Amino acid sequence: MTRWVELRGLIDKARSERKKDWLGALTVLVKRAAEARVCETFEQYRIKKHGRTITLSPRDGGAIMKTRKAEVPAIALRNLPALDDTKLSFRVVLQRDEKMIAEYTASAVGREKSSGRSWYVRVDLDAEQKGDGPCTHAMLHCHVGVDPAEEGGQESRTPLPWLDPDEALAWILATLHPHMEPR
Amino acid sequence: MPDPIADDTLGPAALLEWGEPLGIAFYPNYAEKADLVARMKALAQPRQVHEVRRGEEALDFVGCDCLVIVDPEQEEEAVSFFDRCRDHFEAGPAQILLLLLRGGAGERALKDAPALASFARDASFEVSARPNMEQARADFGRRHGLNPEDWLGRWRNGDLPDTLENNHVLSEALELEESP
Predict the structure, then answer these.
(1) What is the rounded distance in angstroms from the CA atom of residue B144 to the CA atom of residue B55?
(2) Are A89 and A107 in contact (CB under 8 A)?
């Protein structure tokens, strides 16, 4: 068994063992971001659970991440030291019995103040093994830089140990703003 | 009956952030009510949340900085109570959320409860029903040109790029996928 298969086993084990009020945990984190003036107070009220999906509800005039074919509801981040025009989005899907997480995605996009280049981070927990295998496509991984598939560039996925969805979001926020380091 | 002025984003914010003492949430069915209660508990943190079944029970908490969710066994009685006793809740730190079934007895009783209707106006809100599965699947098909199972099949085969957009579509497709 390779170390990559072992890592996949650890992620699947954590996925089946972690029980948490995910809606509450995500709400508390966004509330903390609002208190640190990283986003508007109002944003925490957009986090909703419908069926087995927890995500941001769209709003007229609310922030969105524009993709090729869609507009993904997002939270506008502000007062970031190094980025402008930054948006944060996430989505968590529970399994049918809602006893564990099926998959999640959490991402931020922005523009570097110093260079004007676009900046991108995305953490994905996959529902099942994708790609060629657990080395190139670890079950839980992150993309940092630009969205390679959007640009047609080299794909890379950094393998991650288990992170709850709110922990993945906390990592993104702490990367972007020093006051968001988890305590 | 107060016309709800807010959706279920602004209404809870009016109650928990902007100091409105009492709001009414009109829910469309029991599943949506359960989701709303879970969400209100998350939003109220770190304040305590108390769930009661009669308006009178809310009086026990009126001096506490907390959220009291009133899910009445008898909606008409609860409406009548808050109409008569609104003064008890005006100054206290507690926030009260009264849950009423849209189209139910409580909503009808509000026609004869002008004091409550006026008092609750600024933090009353509508809890929207989620689209039914059939509608949501049809909408997915219109937007993506495939039903959720076929979209997932292409995703699992690696025929779709691993983009931010597709990861959001994936979540939607998993939600809408019919049970195997």
Answers:
(1) 48
(2) yes
- Judged by DSSP in three states, B39 sits in helix
Q: Which residues 105-144 on chain A approach chain B with CB closer than 8 angstroms?
A: 105, 107, 109, 120, 122, 124, 127-128, 130-131
- For B144-179, how does the pLDDT look when each residue is reduced to its tens digit (9 = 90+)? 999 999 999 999 888 988 888 898 899 889 989 987
Handedness of CA A12, A17, A20, A25 (dihedral sign): negative
Q: Rounded to whole angstroms, how far apart are CA atoms B112 and B124?
A: 17
* Contacts of B60 by beta carbon, 8 Å cutoff, 6+ apart: B50
Q: Does B9 touch chain A (CB under 8 A)?
A: yes
- The complex's ipTM works out to 0.84
Residues of B in contact with A93 (CB under 8 A): 171, 174-175
Q: Is residue A63 within 8 Å of residue A159, measured between CB atoms?
A: no
Tokens at B176, concatenated: 């809408």
Superfamily of domain B10-126: P-loop containing nucleotide triphosphate hydrolases (3.40.50.300)
pTM of the model: 0.89
Residue A74 φ then ψ, to 5°: -145, 165
Domain spans in chain B, listed from the N-terminal domain onward:
10-126, 133-176
